[in-house]
Specification:
The protein is of the alpha+beta class. The protein has a 7-stranded mixed β-sheet with strand order 2-4-3-1-5-6-7, sandwiched between helices. Helix 7 runs antiparallel to helix 11. The radius of gyration is 26 Å and the shape is elongated. It starts with a helix and ends with a helix. The C terminus is likely disordered.
Length: 289
């Protein structure tokens, strides 16, 4: 380790001799700025901010030409409107900025960087997975529309409050009865927390993603919307076609079969972490013997 530090110091010393005068702090600073710029560009690419950025670039070109040709009136207008323009941009991008900050808050950057093991528990049981899959495809066979939101790490309390409290143990029969036509709870979304249905007839935010197919209705747009705002996984059963789809992290996975839906549910179940811990405990018990 000391040899590596000495080698790094010698490299920095040689750079200093060539007039660059780089310190370890400068390298860390460059790394942090690069990291932030990269994530800002990734965020811009996946939001409607990119359209606004293109518009701003056109305006900047126009201002640059005004400066070159000394159009004093335009320059005066730009100088006086600049502060208001920044405020207007913040207001226009408020949903995207809020979503970006929420996403940043959900990421445990230090744990990922230091490779610290998280203390996670299984979100729901295999029985719940089987009941969700069975209910979804049973409803699909008779073209009963359904919208089932499975809570992950981000609490869905604000959306849960928009519906009617249920607090019932999950079963395929319960879910089918909730979404049955002309029943009091069939309209809106069901929110699942752990192995229980906590609320029904819930309102969800609609996505403004223009890439969503026009043939899909409000139910699919709401499923994408909640997946953009939170880390929940949502199951959608189409009332028109009976096809089963799922949304997660803003992505829509259409026309899934039973195995495909089960795979999506297992993805957020944290079962893999539990199995690793179980194998580790078994290994330790063998060593003790």
């Amino acid at each position: 380790m000391n040899a590596k530090l000495e080698s790094l110091k010698s490299v920095l010393a040689s750079l200093s001799l060539h007039g660059l005068n780089l310190r370890i702090v400068d390298i860390i600073e460059i790394f942090l700025i690069s990291f932030m710029v990269y994530h800002i560009f990734v965020w811009v690419k996946h939001t409607k901010v990119w359209l606004l950025v293109k518009g701003i670039i056109i305006i900047l070109i126009f201002i640059f030409l005004a400066i070159i040709f000394k159009m004093n009136t335009i320059i005066w207008i730009v100088e006086n409107v600049l502060g208001l323009a920044v405020t207007a941009i913040i207001v226009i991008l408020q949903p995207e900025l809020r979503r970006a900050l929420e996403e940043l808050g959900r990421k445990n950057l230090f744990a990922n960087f230091l490779n610290v093991e998280k203390n996670t528990t299984e979100l729901f049981s295999d029985k719940t997975v089987n009941d969700l899959v069975k209910a979804s495809f049973d409803m699909g066979k008779v073209k009963t529309g359904a919208l089932i939101v499975i809570e992950n790490k981000v609490k869905l309390t604000e959306y849960e409050r928009t519906g009617i409290e249920v607090d019932g143990l999950i079963s395929s029969q319960l879910l089918i009865n909730i979404f049955e036509h002309n029943t009091p709870l069939h309209d809106g979304a069901v929110i699942v927390r752990g192995n229980r249905v906590v609320s029904a007839t819930c309102y969800l935010p609609l996505s403004d993603n223009m890439e969503i197919s026009k043939e899909l209705g409000t139910r699919h747009r709401a499923a994408v919307g909640i997946s953009e705002a939170t880390d929940a996984l949502t199951i959608v059963v189409s009332e028109e076609t009976g096809k089963v789809s799922a949304t997660y992290e803003g992505e829509l996975y259409r026309n899934l079969d039973a195995n495909g839906l089960r795979e999506k549910l297992n993805m957020i179940q944290n079962k893999e972490m539990e199995e690793k811990k179980h194998r580790l405990r078994k290994g330790r018990s063998k060593d003790e013997k």
